[in-house]
């Protein structure tokens, strides 16, 4: 595999792929490259009133706390006023709801373990989030879908 970079004064990237591969393989490569630019969410943290930019790939889990959402990253926890459904609509395909009040990022899912008959998602950094039986099948389906992506 060879890589070549040419510096030009253009406003956007222009990537050309020359290879003996199928269009499907090329499309997967371009999707991977386009995912490199991670979306940023701008929120107002209710805990201290700060306006914060959160990179989507930094979000570990989202949990409902009374009328607020708690957004957990690897370094901080933020609180916003929103419903889980409306916040989930802003996220990409790597986020899945695992209970009525919780969602996780699948890229950070390390394992699903059973504790006293209940499924628990173990995320990077050791964070554990309970998975309700009602959402377990949709979690499995989404993991299967991403496996073949």
Automatic annotation (TrEMBL):
Pfam families: LytTR. Gene3D superfamilies: LytTr DNA-binding domain. One of its GO terms (molecular function) is DNA binding. Residues 43-145 form the HTH LytTR-type domain. Signal peptide: none annotated. PANTHER family: STAGE 0 SPORULATION PROTEIN A HOMOLOG (PTHR37299:SF1), TRANSCRIPTIONAL REGULATOR-RELATED (PTHR37299). This is LytTR family transcriptional regulator. It comes from Weissella muntiaci.
């Amino acid at each position: 595999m060879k890589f070549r970079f040419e510096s030009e004064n253009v406003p956007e990237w222009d990537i050309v792929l020359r290879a003996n591969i199928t269009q499907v393989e090329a499309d997967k490569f371009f999707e991977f490259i386009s995912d490199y630019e991670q979306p940023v969410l701008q929120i107002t943290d209710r805990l201290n009133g700060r306006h914060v930019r959160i990179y989507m790939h930094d979000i570990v889990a989202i949990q409902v706390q009374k009328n607020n959402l708690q957004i957990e990253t690897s370094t901080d926890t933020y609180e916003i006023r929103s419903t889980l459904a409306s916040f989930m609509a802003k996220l990409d395909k790597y986020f899945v709801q695992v209970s009525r009040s919780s969602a996780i990022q699948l890229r950070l899912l390390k394992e699903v373990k059973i504790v006293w008959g209940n499924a628990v998602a173990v995320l990077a950094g050791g964070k554990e989030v309970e998975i309700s039986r009602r959402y377990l099948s949709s979690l499995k389906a989404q993991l299967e879908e991403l496996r073949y992506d």
